[in-house]
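INFO  loader      accepted 1 record
INFO  loader      residues=275
INFO  predictor   begin
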Amino acid sequence: MKKRDKKTIIYSDPVNDEFSGVGPRPKITVGKNYPYIRRGPIYRFFRFIVYKIIMLPVAHLYCFFKFRVKFVGREKIVPYKKSGMFIYGNHTQIPGDAFIPNVLLSPHDAYFVVNPDNVALRGTRMFMTMVGAIPTPTEIGGFGPFGKAIEQRISEGAAVVIFPEAHIWPYYVGIRPFASTSFRYPAKSGSPVFSLTVTYRRSRTGRPRIVAYVDGPFFAEGSVREAQEALREAVYSAMCSRAETPDNYEFVVYKPACGTDAGEGTEGTSSSGRI
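INFO  predictor   done
INFO  writer      dumping tokens
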């Protein structure tokens, strides 16, 4: 792929611009009555079929044939696979951002903090829940059950995956600014935190290949506020370091609009994204 053939995207807000190509979805209310945890035997049976029998094999096949995904540092998570962990990643693929952590953690469960529009379509709402979607609340009353759901999944030994950049920028090779808000959960629980940084390589045929770097574990120290800031800095630094590798190939060029400050807007960054 020659440089002149590369797609160019102009952005104005590095925090809030969305380039996933996913159109508007119906509005959904995620409040205190949203069923974050389902315990019924019928649901668990069908979740096993959907998640373990269908989704995980599809994730492995997709990651291999589409991107030949290679993990660097995978061994770092091995001692913590059954104790629960948080994984923070850069947000550059649909559906790869959901598949890659599942391949990394397989056969253990991964749950994803997502934008509520991921569970807005009635025909796919149950499916998205079964494959691990934990939607962020749209009402204040939902934050209690939301937090308890995250705690429950960590206590079960699962991984909770968060994309702090919030919005998808396909094939973006940098790390966008994000706030420390979503790091409050590991800061409170003391669970290990890892960064998962997706980088790109150009194959001999010109097709994208992915090298995903695992860094950590990072642990909370000090007060909750101090810990969440420290965890954010540790993850952000690790991700930036990996993204800056000279082999990270730019398949899509992102350029700021005239007058745009690429460093603006870190406050208020959501912890969710589309998967």
